[in-house]
Write a structure and sequence with these properties.
The chain is mainly α and about 110 residues long. Helix 1 packs antiparallel against helix 3 and helix 3 packs antiparallel against helix 4.
């Protein structure tokens, strides 16, 4: 068995488990930055929406890891490169999406004109 396949398989399982915790709404402690905020600041955010977004992002990363692992089974098809590009684009898109528009602020914490 190829070591790349093992590493990608372990990362796939890790991302799926973390995504499950986050989608269930129980994984807010996994979100870096959110779990270190003071409680007063945390109350401004919709924890459930933030957890669901991060959960879907983890499942997206898991799918990329699955494609990377498939490159070990079928080498020379460019799957590793494609999955890496998808992963980078997804990460950049997630950062832009999460940091624009105040999507995860509670309604009463949003600034209204």
């Amino acid at each position: 068995m190829n070591s790349d396949l093992i590493v990608c398989g372990v990362l796939f399982l890790l991302f799926v488990v973390m995504g499950g915790f986050l989608l269930a709404g129980r994984g807010a402690w996994l979100i870096a930055g959110y779990n270190t905020m003071p409680k007063k600041e945390r109350k401004r955010y919709d924890e459930r929406a933030l957890c669901r977004f991060m959960g879907w992002l983890m499942l997206y990363c898991a799918a990329c890891m699955l494609v990377m692992g498939a490159d070990s089974l079928w080498p020379g098809r460019g799957l590793w490169l494609a999955a890496t590009i998808w992963l980078v684009i997804g990460a950049i898109g997630a950062v832009i999406y999460a940091n624009t528009g105040g999507r995860f602020l509670k309604e009463n914490a949003r600034k209204r004109p």
